[in-house]
Amino acid sequence: MTQTSNNTIQETKPYRYKLSVGHMKSGSAQILVIKELTVQGDDFAECFSELSAGLKAFQTMELK
User: Fold this and answer.
1) Is 0.90 topped by the overall pTM?
2) Listed residue (32, 29, 8) closest to 20, CA to CA
3) Is residue 41 assigned to a domain?
4) Which of 4, 49, 60, 62 has the greatest number of CB atoms lying within 10 Å of its CB?
């Protein structure tokens, strides 16, 4: 009897965008700003989609 083993290799996808945020003073208030939003890729449509995802992540951030 032959024993077979199935090994699954899970390839992790690198992050396609990098989002850096910071604080800035606007009058007497502190506001949250995007300092850097970098997208990497070869396909324009995919990069644009990742850019949108990065902006959506910024909009949904909740800081306490």
Assistant:
1) no
2) 32
3) yes
4) 49
Domain that holds residue 49: 17-59
Q: With respect to residue 38, please indicate whether it lies within any of the assigned structural domains.
A: yes
Pairwise CA distance, residues 10 & 61, whole Å: 29
Residue-level pLDDT at 6: 58
Question: For the segment 11-54, what is each residue's pLDDT rounded down to a tens digit?
Answer: 556 667 788 888 898 888 888 888 988 888 888 998 888 888 88
61 Cβ contact list (under 8 Å, min separation 6): 21, 32
Q: Are strands 17-26 and 29-39 parallel, antiparallel or unpaired?
A: antiparallel
Which DSSP state fits 16?
A: S
DSSP 11: P
What is the pLDDT at residue 14? 67
If one counts the domains in the chain, the total is: 1
Residue with tokens 């800081």: 63
